[in-house]
Design goal:
The chain is an alpha/beta fold and about 350 residues long. The protein has twelve helices and 14 strands. Bound molecules: iron/sulfur cluster (2 copies). One iron/sulfur cluster binds next to α12.
């Protein structure tokens, strides 16, 4: 199962890598960054206390497994509080990994602290990709301009290789496309348009296409709609990975089975029915993120009466919840996710 070491060298052009059990996955260039990233990006939110992962050893083992199977790109964030898991997973790995992280800093002091925290926490001098987290529009981006300027200085010094933004908004993608200094855009993208806060899926696709034509490196997020599309991961991931202009897709993975299934999908291979059956059999629950603001929209939407508000946050009655996913589509902050338990 161990990978061939030369598969992971960063190459100048789009190319493919063979993986022992997987056939082939693509490693395209991410825009004009000079970084080749695997088309499947390891979404590390799934290995975060925010999604119930408190076991560093177990989290690191799953991530390490994914990296050893051919993934060379991982996405995290300061708020995920999982730098230790990543550091452990990378220790002694024989091939380079491109790390993207992000934070909410908006001024020099904050971004300086966040960048240093990432370098220390991940135990590396250079962070390949540093993003401004959840930029909703040009207005938001202007409000973070000091932080962006600091990142550009860090890029000049070689401490970061590419800068950019993540966004759940069509206007966020358009803003990133319009700013020449932005190298990378990490937009929400799934076949149902779940979680887009200001528009439709066709509008998001159009914005992504425009950004791609402007030379931005694009990697998508929430291809499984925060878990709400996970009943058919083959359909959901095959959709996301084939959107024109998207180099890579970050997918949260919390088990080896998920890694194996996702790698096969991204290699264009069939997934054994037994694997998908096992995946569906794993108990899943609806999880409310700690950043819930208690607006109550999800409660109004739930047809089962499974949601209530307690102490200013949504609470799920798992016994009533049928995991239909309707609530996740109306949450403005993407707080509701269907996750595997334990
Ligand atoms: S819609 Fe989202 S932010 Fe509002 S109460 Fe529900 S989970 Fe919280
Ligand atoms: S997933 Fe469906 S049943 Fe469960 S809380 Fe959300 S809307 Fe209600």
């Amino acid at each position: 199962m161990s990978p061939k070491p030369d598969l992971f060298n960063l190459m100048p052009r789009r190319h493919e890598v063979s993986c022992d059990q997987l056939g082939v996955i693509f490693v395209p260039l991410l825009g004009q960054t000079g970084l080749n990233v695997s088309s499947l990006c390891f979404g590390a939110l799934a290995l975060s206390p925010l999604q119930g992962c408190h076991d560093v050893t177990r989290g690191a083992a799953v991530l390490r497994y994914g990296l050893e199977q051919g993934i060379n790109f991982l996405d995290t964030a300061e708020i995920y509080a999982n730098y230790e898991i990543i550091r452990r997973a990378l220790k002694g790995l024989s091939h380079p990994v491109v790390i993207a992280t992000k934070c909410y800093a908006y001024n020099r002091e904050q971004i300086k602290e966040s960048l240093e925290r990432a370098r220390r926490g991940l135990d590396r001098d250079v962070i390949e990709i540093f993003l401004l987290h959840e930029q909703e529009s040009m207005h938001t981006l202007r409000g973070h301009w000091e932080a962006l300027e600091y990142l550009l200085e860090a890029k000049q010094k070689g401490v970061v290789k590419a800068v950019g933004l993540s966004t759940h908004a069509v206007a966020g993608v358009r803003a990133g496309a319009a700013v020449p200094e932005i190298d990378v855009i990490h937009p929400i993208l799934n076949l149902a348009g779940l979680g887009i806060i200001d528009g439709t899926l066709p509008e998001m696709l159009e914005a992504i296409q425009m950004a791609h034509q402007m030379g931005k490196g694009i990697y998508g997020m929430k291809a499984l709609g925060g878990g709400h599309l996970s009943q058919d991961p083959v359909q959901a991931l095959n959709y996301a990975r084939q959107v024109p202009g998207v180099a890579s897709v970050a997918v949260g993975m919390a088990s080896r089975l998920e890694v194996d299934i996702n790698l096969r999908i991204f290699a264009g291979l069939e997934v054994p029915a037994g694997w998908l059956k096992r995946l569906r059999q794993e108990r899943r629950i609806l999880h409310v993120a700690e950043w819930c603001e208690g607006c109550g929209r999800c409660q109004e939407k739930c047809p089962q009466g499974a949601l209530s508000l307690e102490q200013g946050q949504a609470r799920v009655d798992q016994a009533k919840c049928v995991l239909c996913g309707y609530c996740g589509a109306v949450c403005p902050h993407f707080c509701l996710k269907i996750i595997r338990q334990g």
